[in-house]
Amino acid sequence: MKILLSGLLLVILSFQKISAQDSLTINKIQDTTIISKSNIGDKTHQFSYKKLIIPAVFISYGITSLTVPGLKNLNSSTQFEISEHKPDHIRLDNYTQFAPGVLVYGLNAFGVEGKHNLRDRSMIYGTSLLITSAFTLPLKHLVKEERPDGSNNLSFPSGHTAMAFASAQFMFREYKDTNFMLGISGYSFAVFTGVYRMLNNKHWFGDVVAGAGFGILSTEMAYWLYPKINQLLGSKKEKSQTMIMPFYQNRSVGIGLVKNF
How far is 86 from 23, CA to CA, in rounded Å? Predict the structure, then answer.
């Protein structure tokens, strides 16, 4: 299990490092070449097929693990290995799923600025959590996969893991251009969350991998959609302000909107 999870994290970090290097190259070109900003465009919110590779692979693996015998056996053997060690069940995964997102706000409060201001990053993060919920909640009821502990049939995909990786991807996107190591630090909380969903006997390995894919995809979609959402919520009045904040209460995820005219 440790080898599988280490490989999962290594794939993410390797791909993100390549992505960050590409972004750095673009920035260097902009610094050394006299080209107008309007011609280059803002790469932060542009659609890129390359960013779909990791989530597509993870989601595909999770889906195939539902039916392919070899992958189903891997799910079972992983849970059997966990049950043999009989780990203590802890509920930190209920909180670590949001830790990277909270860190972004905390770092900004202490002067470590990310890519966006409070309003814009709240809009992006809130959209990401909504998209994650839109993916995971209906799928749980459609797939009806039984949890390892037999408590219900809402195992696939792992919602906690999806939220955790959505938050980690949000932290990466905010800090990858200014501090790469800080940006990827959020993935440690995401992997921890996925591991403990299995240690708590709530999810199979395939559920966790798929959850990671849906989480990353949700945040990428939030960044792509941000300019259009911002335009819809914008106002011609200079004094008009809009604030969007995500919230989590009683195991429910939502988003609040406040608009001053």
Answer: 45
